[in-house]
Amino acid sequence: DNKIILSPIKVAIVDSGIIPATDLIKNKLISSYNLTENLDMNNWSSHATYIASVFSGIIKKKSKQNIYAENANLNSIKISFADDVGDSEVKNYGSMQLAAALDVAVSSGAKVVNLSLSYNEEPDQNVEMAEKIVISNAAKSGVFFVVAAGNEGKDLGLFPAYPASYNLNNMISVASHSSNLSLATTSNFGNLVELSALGSQVELNNRFS
Question: 20: cis peptide before it, omega within 30°?
């Protein structure tokens, strides 16, 4: 059988900070940046680690499974998450923190930037401009941003969620569907959404595995 050989690619995960909880994640994680004052990994949310396990896979019956991008090398960029245990900072995606994180992701050489997050409050004009500039300029280097459409179950054209609603050429907005391919009731939708991916019944690792 002919096998497709994929070249290594650097993927930046801008999120709650990847915890190297398993050997599979450790082997994928090539760099980490922390843009917050929360230095204690024990207090970090597991969200980024869940995302990392999609790329790195899980160990099941002595074999690696659930690997969607085995050729991906991961770069973790931590921003503030409200559910970080003991972290008093609010979830502040609409601040310059996210724009700075996107800039770090691009500067680190990532070709794909994963943003499994969204916020509904319209950002300050300066913040929006900064985020759009970073994302648009990255297109010159062939960088794509894969962005969650959001979980409000609404049409993004009528009820914007950011940054998914920026509608930039190098941004892919992703909705969520179930195993029967029907759109998840909580998933946002509309003309601003490019594709949908399985968002339930996906086996993941967390920091306690």
Answer: no
Buried b (16+ CB within 10 A) or exposed e, 19-30: bbbbebbeebbe
Structure tokens at 105: 């992701």
| Exposure on the CB side of residue 131, measured as CA atoms within 13 A | 26
State CA 95 to chain mean position distance. 17
Beta strands in 51-94 (DSSP E): 58-60, 63-65, 72-78
Q: What is the pLDDT of residues 145-199, one digit of tens each?
A: 999 999 999 999 999 999 999 999 999 999 999 888 899 899 999 999 999 988 8
Q: Contact at 8 Å (CB) between 149 and 175?
A: yes
d(C-alpha 29, C-alpha 18), whole Å: 8
